[in-house]
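A common beginner's mistake is to predict each chain separately and then try to dock the pieces by hand. The better habit, illustrated here, is to supply every component at once so that their relative placement is modeled jointly.
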Amino acid sequence: MNKLISIEEAIDKIKDGDVLMIGGFLSVGAPLTLIDKLVEKGTKNLTLICNDSGFVDSGVGKLVVNKQFSKVIASHIGTNKETGRQMMAGETEVILTPQGTLAEQVRCACYGLGGFLTRTGVGTAVQEGKDVIEVDGVKYLLEKPLHADFALIFAQKADKYGNLVYHGAAQNFNSVMAGAATTTIVEVLEYSEEALNPDVAETPGVFVDYIVKRGA
Amino acid sequence: MDKENIQEFIAKRVAQELHDGDVVNLGIGLPTLVANYVPHDKAVMFQSENGFVGLGPTPTEEQFDPYITNAGGKPVTIKKGGIFFDSATSFGIIRGGHVDLTVLGALQVDAKGNIANYMIPGKMVPGMGGAMDLISGAKKVIVAMEHTAKGSMKILKECSLPLTAANEVNLIVTEMGVIEVTEKGLVLVEINPEFSVEQVQDLTEPELIVSEDLKPMEVE
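With all components supplied together, the output reads:
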C-alpha cells in the first residue's frame, strides 16, 4: 500500500466537526504544513487535542485565530491570548488538562486501555466530576482515554512503511499520538523508499496511515 | 536587597538542596536560576518535561537547533549523557517518582503544603501545563519565591486560589528564611540574619513553629 499522499489529499479527508490530535509543544515539532493547509481550507467546528494552543501566528494557534475549533483540550493556553479570549467570551469550550494526564489519555486511546489512575489533580479542580478510586490507601483519579478522528503529527523521517524517527525535542506528543486516532497522518522532513533501520525506528509504521512531505 | 539580589539569594539557597546524581525539574522564572548555582562537586541532571533529561544552557550560534528547546519553547542544549523521549515517557518519569526534586514558584502556599500557582479565576487562566503532575509526582517539592507579593502575604493558613496540588510541598525558600512543611505545621528552620523571627512571622499568616535548631540562612 502506498502511504505517501499530497497535503491536499490529506486535508480533504478532514470534515467539519472532526476531532483532531495535533502534535508539537509550543509549535516545536508541530505539523506546520498540514496546519497551514487546514487554515486555508477553513474546516470548521473542529475539536483540538494538543499540548497547548500555540501562538497567534504559529502552529495550531493559527487555527484558533481562524475560529476553526469549537472545543480545545490542552494543558496550556497562556501563549495564545486568542484562546483565552474565546474561552472567556464563551465562543470556544476549553478543557485544561494536566500535561502528563493529557499524554496518558492519548496513549490509552492508542493502546486500547479504558483509562488509568493518577494522583495528579487529586484535591484540585481537575478532580471535579471524576471518579476517585482508592488503591492500597492512596487516592487516584480515573482518567479516561481521549479518542480522535485524526492524529496530525510530525517526524524527522519516514520510510515508505510509515516507520518514523524523530529529532531532538520534536518527538513530544507526536509519537504518543501516532495510532491514537482513527487515522494518523504524519508530516515529515525526509521520506525514504528504503526501509529505516528497524533497530532505530521509533514509531512502528502500523500506527501510521498516511505520510505527507513538508512543503510538498 | 533589590529584586535581582533577592532572586539570586533564593536560587543559591535552593541549590544547596541538590544532591549528587539528582534528577531535577526547574519551573519557569526564579527556579530556572537554580541551574546557575549547582555545586561543582555535584552532578545533577535537569529534566525538561517537553521530552528530555540533560537540559543544558542556551546554545551558541553554532550549537543552535530549532528542535532543541525547553518547556518554555526557548532554545537550549542537551548535555552529554542526556536523552530525548516522548511526552508519555517524560511524564512517566515525573509521575513515577523518578524526578528527585522539583522547584517551582507559587502564587500562594499554605500550612498544609497546598500550593496554588496556575490560575487566578477571571484574570489569569493559562492552564497548569505540567505543574500538577510535577508537584504530585516528584519526590521532593520546593517552593522558591519572594516571601510576599508587594507586601501582601503569600504563605497562608489556607490557599484561596485554585490548588495546583494538595499536601505536596516539602520546603519553602524565600529571602526571609527556609520553612519546612510538617504535619504539625510550618517550621522555620533557617532565617536570613537581616530579619528577626517577628518580622518573618508578621509577613506569614499561619503561626510559625520556630525550630529549636534555628540556623542563619547563608549562601556563598
